[in-house]
Write a structure and sequence with these properties.
The structure is a single chain. This protein is mainly β. It is built from two helices and eleven strands.
Length: 145
């Protein structure tokens, strides 16, 4: 049996159980509005253990709170959006921990189509310092190559 491609520009579902109506959504909205890559990893572990992710093939540890997240499938250009969060592994409520900054804006390192350099920091009363948070999450939206 040969595999083919089904092309459609609108998804249509029946909501007859609740409203007895048909609903639709433009597939370009779905395609453009979802992360093309995401990851949840342990930034405090020596091996940067990945808990789960999509379109990420590995993490490069550059030092305390400094990582490259590497994409399995490259982006078509370096103008994609990225954002994330992090927290302490013990679940404590530390409002000064958990800042994730793409190095593009915080450290003057450009995004590439194949990876993004991110930093996690601990904010003190006088400065921020690199910090290996136990839970680091990152996602990126854009067009894949």
């Amino acid at each position: 049996m040969a595999n083919g491609t089904i092309a459609f520009d609108t998804l249509q579902t029946s909501d007859s159980v609740n409203t007895n109506t048909t609903k639709s959504i433009d597939t370009s909205y779905i395609f453009n509005g979802v992360p093309k890559a995401w990851i949840n990893f342990d930034g405090g572990a020596s091996s940067n253990y990945t808990r789960d992710g999509f379109n990420m093939n590995d993490i490069t540890d550059n030092g305390d709170g400094d990582y490259n997240v590497n994409y399995t499938n490259n982006f078509s250009n370096d103008d994609y959006w990225g954002g994330g969060s992090s927290s302490l592994a013990d679940g404590s409520d530390d409002a000064n921990s958990g800042i994730v900054a793409p190095a593009r804006t915080a450290h003057n390192v450009a995004f590439t189509t194949s990876s993004t350099r991110i930093r996690t920091v601990l904010q003190t009363s006088t400065a921020s310092q690199p910090f290996n948070n136990g839970v680091v999450c990152w996602s990126a939206l854009g067009d894949l190559a």
